[in-house]
Amino acid sequence: MTEPLFVIPLWADLTAVGLGGIQGALFASGFRGQRRLDLLGVALIGILIGMGGGLIRDLLLNVPLTTLQSNWYLITATGAALLGMLLANVFQRLNRVIVGLDAVVIGMFGAFGTSKALALGLPAVPAVFVGVCAAVGGSVLRDVIMGLPVAVMHVGSLYAVAAGAGCVTLVILDAVGVDLVIGAIVCIAVAAVIRILAVVFDLSLPEQRLLHRRKVAGETTAIPVVRPPAD
Amino acid sequence: MTEPLFVIPLWADLTAVGLGGIQGALFASGFRGQRRLDLLGVALIGILIGMGGGLIRDLLLNVPLTTLQSNWYLITATGAALLGMLLANVFQRLNRVIVGLDAVVIGMFGAFGTSKALALGLPAVPAVFVGVCAAVGGSVLRDVIMGLPVAVMHVGSLYAVAAGAGCVTLVILDAVGVDLVIGAIVCIAVAAVIRILAVVFDLSLPEQRLLHRRKVAGETTAIPVVRPPAD
Amino acid sequence: MTEPLFVIPLWADLTAVGLGGIQGALFASGFRGQRRLDLLGVALIGILIGMGGGLIRDLLLNVPLTTLQSNWYLITATGAALLGMLLANVFQRLNRVIVGLDAVVIGMFGAFGTSKALALGLPAVPAVFVGVCAAVGGSVLRDVIMGLPVAVMHVGSLYAVAAGAGCVTLVILDAVGVDLVIGAIVCIAVAAVIRILAVVFDLSLPEQRLLHRRKVAGETTAIPVVRPPAD
C-alpha cells in the first residue's frame, strides 16, 4: 500500500514538521482573544500546524498517513512546539520571523504534497490541489479550532496564491522532465518568495493586524458600555 | 482498489460538481459579513461546495477520491465558481435560483453517495448516512470555514430531512430490486421536491434571512455605543 | 483490508457509541446559545459524539470505517441520542451524570483507538496520538459545528491530559506484555478517574460554566446599551 516509487526524505519532512510546529506555537502564543489559550492549547496548535499538512495530504491521497508511521513526526512536532513557546517572548514582536517561517513552511508542504501526488499518478490539476490543501490546510484547521476568521478566505490571496504558484511551477517542471527534487526546491523558493514579497510590499501580516483591530473593537463594546454620562 | 462494479457516469458527476460550484459562488457573493470575502474566497467557496460532497463521500467509503483522479472535476468546479461570480449580480435577488440549484445539488450528492455506498456493499443504514453526509457535508464545511452558524444544525431539518428522505427512498427501491439509475433519479426528485416545498410553504431561505438579521444586530451593538447622552 | 488480528468486541464498541450518543444529546439539550438548536440538531450532536471517535480513529488509521460496516452503530447512536433528549429534563441539572458519562466515553474511545493502532503495527507515540484524537475528536467536532470555543483548546487540559494519560498507560502495559483487553480496561479507568478528579477537585465542568458566563456577558452587551442616561 505504501508506494516505493517516491519517498520524501525523512529529514526534509521532519524539517517541515518542525518549522511548522515552531511557527504554530509562535502564532498561538501571540494570540490575544476573548479567552487565552492555556499552555497545552498553544502546544496543540503547534503540533496541529506541524502535522496538519501531512495528514491532509495523505487523507486526500488515500494512503497510510506517513506522519503516523514513525515516532519521529510527533516527537519533532511536540519538541518544536515547546521550543516555539519558549522562544515566544523573544520573537514575539519579530513578526518577520513568523512570516519567514510561515512562507517556507507553506512552500515545503506545497512541494511535498504536489510531488507525492504526482508520484502516485494523479493528473496535474489535482496534484496542484493536493499541494495547496497541504500548504494551507494546517492554517485553516488552526483558525477553525481557535475560532478565528479563516485567514485563507479573507486575506488569503497571499497564502493560497503563493502555494498555488509554487505547486504549478513544480507540475510544469515535472512535465518538462526536470527532476522532482529540483522541482520541489524551486517550488519552495517560488512560494516563499511570493508570500514574503506580498507581505513586504502589500501589507505587513494583514490577518493578524485585522484580527487585533477586531478584537480591540470587540472588547470596547464588551466592557465600557456602563460608563456614566459625562455630567 | 477502485471497484469496477459501479461507476457514476462522469457527465452526471460533473453536473453535480458544476451546479454545486455555481450555487456556492452565488451564496458566497451574497454574503455580507463583518469582513467581505475577496474574489478568491468566493471562488474557493464555490470549489468547496462543488467538490466537498464527493470528497466526503469517498473519505467515508475509504476509496481513492474520485474527484482527484481526473483533471475535469477541479476544472469544472473552478469554471462553475467563476460563472457563479459573474452571474451573481444578475441572480443576486433571484433567491429562487439559489434555492432550486441547492435542492438539485443536495439530491444529486445524496443519490451518488448512497448508491456508491450500496455498490461497495455497505448495509442500508450506513448507506443512507453516507448519502446524507455527502449531500449536506459541503454546506457544513462552507459554514464552518465562513464562520457562520452551521445551517444544518439550526434550520437544517429542511436540508437533512430532504436528503435523508431521498436517500431512504433510494435504499428501499434498491432493496425492492429497482435499477440503481432509476432509484438515483427518484432520489434526486424526492430530495429536491421536499427541499423546494419546504422553502415555498414554510420559510423562504430561512437561514439566510436569520443570518442577515443577526449581522445587522451585531453591527448595531458594535458601532453606536459612543453616542453622547441626549442632553 | 480488515485485519483479523484485532477486533474490538461489537458490544464494547456499541456501548461507547451509545454512551457517547446519550452524553452528546444531554450536552446539546443544555445548550443555550444565540440560536436554539432544533430537535434534529440535538439528535445530530448526539450521533456525532457517538460516531465521531470511531470515524476519526479509522480515518487516521486509513482502514475501512468500522462504524459504517454494520447497521448497528448508527441505530445505537440515534437511539441513544433520542434517549438522551428524553432524559434531558430529568438529568439537566445533574451535571454529575454528564461529567461521569463523558469521562467513561473519553476513556473508551481512547482505549479503542490506541489498541487498534497498536494492533495495526503503529509505533507507540502515534498510537497514543490516535487514541487521544479518537477520545477528544468528537467533542472538537461538536464545538466547531455548534460554534462554541473548542473546549479542548481552552480548558482542555482535563480532557486531553486524561485521555493522554490513559493511552500512555495502555501503551506501556502493552509494551510490558500485558494483554490488550486488560490494558484497555486500565486505560479506561485511568482516563475516567483523572477526568472526574479534575472536575471534582479543580473546577466543576469549567467549560460549561465559562460558556454560560460568556453567553450572558454577550447578551448583556447585545441588549441594554440603549439605556438612557440616569438623569
Describe the model.
Chain A is mainly α. Chain A has one domain. In chain A, 76% of the residues lie in helices and 0% in strands. Chain A has helices spanning 10-29, 39-61, 71-91, 95-119, 124-146, 151-154, 157-176, 180-202, 206-222. In chain A, helix 2 (39-61) crosses helix 3 (71-91). The radius of gyration of chain A is 19 Å and the shape is globular. Mean pLDDT of chain A is 79; it is low at 203-231. At the A-B interface, helix 2, helix 5, helix 6, helix 7 and helix 9 of A face helix 2, helix 3 and helix 5 of B.
Percent of residues in beta strands of chain A: under 5%
Question: What is the residue-mean pLDDT of chain A, rounded to a whole number?
Answer: 79
Tally of alpha and pi helices of chain A: 9
Q: What is the quaternary state of this protein?
A: homotrimer
Largest sheet of chain A: none
| Largest interface, C-beta within 8 A | A-B, 33 and 33 residues
Task: State the low-pLDDT regions of chain A, or none.
Answer: 203-231
Q: Roughly what percent helix of chain A?
A: over 70%
Rg on CA atoms of chain A, Å: 19 Å
Count of discrete structural domains of chain A:
1
Spell out the blueprint of helices and strands.
Three copies of one chain form a homotrimer.
Chain A: H1 10-29, H2 39-61, H3 71-91, H4 95-119, H5 124-146, H6 151-154, H7 157-176, H8 180-202, H9 206-222
Helix pairs in contact in A: 1-2, 1-3, 1-4, 2-3, 2-4, 2-5, 4-5, 4-7, 4-8, 5-7, 7-8
